[in-house]
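We emphasize that the prediction below concerns an isolated chain of 142 residues; any contacts that depend on oligomerization or on bound cofactors are therefore not represented. The input was used exactly as deposited, without trimming of termini.
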Amino acid sequence: MLGGIGVVAVILLIFILIAFNEPSYTTLYSNLAPEEANEVVKYLTTQKTAYKLEDNGNTINVSKADVYEVRLALAGKGIPSTGMIGYEIFDKNTIGMSEFMQKINFKRAIEGEIARTIIQQDGIENARVHIVTPEKAVFKDE
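Result of the prediction step, given as a token string:
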């Protein structure tokens, strides 16, 4: 009788250790385009980072301990590319660009950076930002 209780206790102890040893997963990215999700999964696979796919592959989860490090590494590689252009627009050579085009690119960069910042907030899936600046007039309206 005591031997049976001992075996049950050992099995229960092993089960508890396995259950609590499993890493806790959190969302890395959700609602990605399939191409972007593929790039993220490729990166996670090459880095041998454990991940789980949910919502038919629309959500990628990694362990809570790795989430911030992985996000930073992916951001450094430009993954995921949200289609929004931020300050990286100025990484290109702009020699010979007119002042008008430089102003347009600056406006696009600011819009993209603000949209990215908004999207990073919990509960926000997508954002689009438009900045409208008034034209400087020679004469003052009354």
